[in-house]
Design brief:
Distance between the termini of chain A: 37 Å
Mean pLDDT of chain B: 84
Distance between the termini of chain B: 77 Å
Largest sheet of chain A: 6 strands, mixed
Low-confidence stretches of chain B: 1-12
Helix content of chain A: 25-40%
CATH class of the largest domain in chain A: Alpha Beta
Strand order of the largest sheet of chain A: 6-7-8-3-9-10
CATH architecture of the largest domain in chain A: 3-Layer(aba) Sandwich
CATH topology of the largest domain in chain B: MetI-like fold
Helix content of chain B: over 70%
Mean pLDDT of chain A: 88
Structural class of chain A: alpha+beta
Number of domains of chain A: 2
Order of helices and strands of chain B: HHEEHHHHHHHHHHH
Number of strands of chain B: 2
Number of domains of chain B: 2
Oligomer: heterodimer
Largest sheet of chain B: 2 strands, antiparallel
CATH superfamily of the largest domain in chain B: MetI-like
Number of helices of chain B: 13
CATH superfamily of the largest domain in chain A: P-loop containing nucleotide triphosphate hydrolases
Shape of chain B: globular
Low-confidence stretches of chain A: none
CATH architecture of the largest domain in chain B: Orthogonal Bundle
Order of helices and strands of chain A: EEEHEEEHHHEHEHEEHHEEEHEEEEEEE
Strand content of chain A: 25-35%
Largest interface: A-B, 26 and 19 residues
Structural class of chain B: mainly alpha
CATH topology of the largest domain in chain A: Rossmann fold
Strand order of the largest sheet of chain B: 1-2
Amino acid sequence: MATIELQRVEKKFGDLHAVKPIDLTIHDGEFVVLLGPSGCGKTTTLRMISGLEAVTGGRILLNNRDVTWAHPSERDIAFVFQFFALYSHMSVRQNIAFPLQAQGESRETIRQRVAEVARLLEIGHVLEAKPGSLSGGDRQRVALARALVRRPAAFLMDEPLGALDAEFRETMRAEIKRLHIEQHATSVYVTHDQIEAMAMGDRIVVMSDAVVQQVGTPAQVYHDPANLFVARFIGSPGMNLLTGHYAGGTVRVRENMTYQVPGDWVPALDRALDGEGEVILGFRPEAAAVNSEGLPATVYATDLLGGYTMLHLEIGDHEIVHARAGRETHYSIGTPVRFALDPAMVRFFDPKTEKAIVREVTA
Amino acid sequence: MTPNAQAIPTGPQQMTRHSRRQMSDKTIAHLFIWPTLLLLIVMNIFPLFYSLYLSFNDYSVIANEPPKWVALDNYEKILTNERSRYWHNFTVTGRYAALSVGLQIVIGFGLAMLLREKFRGSGLITTLILIPMMLSPVVVGLFWKLIFDPSKGFFNYLIYLNPRGGDQWLSDPTLGLWSIVIVDVWMWSPFVMLLCLSGLSAIPNYLYEAAAIDRASAWFQFRRITLPQVMPLLLIAVLFRTIEAFKAFDLVMGLTGGGPGDTTETVAVRLYSEAFLGKFKTGESSALAYIVLIIIIAVSNLYIRALNRAREG
């Protein structure tokens, strides 16, 4: 078990920052997800933790031991690669046994431990097969088994489900989560899939442009995004963001459209905007409910998504907001509707800094 | 233009189109295949079977006598008659093949491991190393003969084995075979290197990353990843070089001519001298050629089996 600590860790290729200085502590037994679009530096960060990539600045501590310049083999970590990285010329059994053999474990120990993880991952029946003949899901199980068999201090996973088809993904996602709960091993997991991140992470580190945008629990990054990037990136679709002018407790979004700011937000907005100014109003689709007296809009399109309906509402100038509605109601295109926002679920952002405006913590 | 004038040139055009249409794809295919096939039959297939026939006959091309059927006499003579010293030729060939292929694999693979990492000028060095295998064996034989020369050559000077007298490389009964081995290794290690290099570059880097994470030492990685992954290509190199070694002729002729005595006389050299050099024992040498062919096919089969096993893992 391990605590991983990144202190001002950065990676530069020439003058280009792949990862700008990042501070992060991953606690013992925690499942941390690095989430971000491709090229944001999440994989590089993971590879720096593993030692496969050298840092260009900062320190990495593993259980308070400085491993910044330690070889990957000296870090006691396991790494699950996106494309499995199985040894194609060896059988599944040999693949799983490899890390134990490399350490010179006895034959009996190897046999026992391989049988143990094979049982855990339910791959006992493919032990003598070659990785090439396995399905994607089984290959990933073998890769996980090879990581588990060594009982490492921490697991690092680089988009382990990225190469699987949708059907397998769900199953494997659940399996990895269950494994984590059973083994209680410190895990760092890289993905670009925010649903995966929300489902698996104890904490999510949202990254973009080589910078950490927010670190928080799935609920925090979903409900209280730290900035506009996180607001847009998390959620499918992302948060609705409407620019308007704030003055005296109301936000004027359009000529004929004024939003009454909930009471507990007024002091925070007054303070942040010095009484008045441009502000971005943000709310999740499920915070908007179609009713008879809210903000006016027309139905632009509707997506019937099985359990619910996603409404695309046009509020003039082709600006679209998304709202969730029950599956039983039908809205035809072009119908004028009104929608109200759940006061507990609205958020505000400063358009200049792109950061969220925070309410004072009430004691 | 009148309609009539237009009609005149279309006549012959239609004719050509028609006759072309008559020549079916099959006919065209036959037209391509038969000349080649005929050439193959005349130049390869016929001599192959004719020499098989001759190997069961007492026959000499210059004797002006028809072949006389002797059944397996020729084979029996080659394989059992001690005085004919054919076994000696097989031993020489075997030793030569083992030494030269073994060294080529070690050196070629070693060079490939060194040149695997790209560095400044590695492309140029690779090309320079490949030069020996582009040369004609006759040329190689001639100038290595000069290099080995005890008085004028610089080989002794380079290795400084005997600064006073200088070893008689080519005319020494033991060093003679080694001389040919050295030249063959010099000439063909680059070929093994080339094959190994392509095998090495096909090993994905993530395997080494995974192995590093799995705490495998460099030696363990080499033994468990590099070697098995290159093995198929290594075996192909061994196969090619072994077949070549069994046919060793040009280098031997260029360097020692089989001497001193018959200490470096490989099967191919013996075959040549039996078949042509004043003896013209056509029947007997045909039998010898068939024995060599059978050995090569047998050895190749063993390698191919090993290759298939290596491919499967």
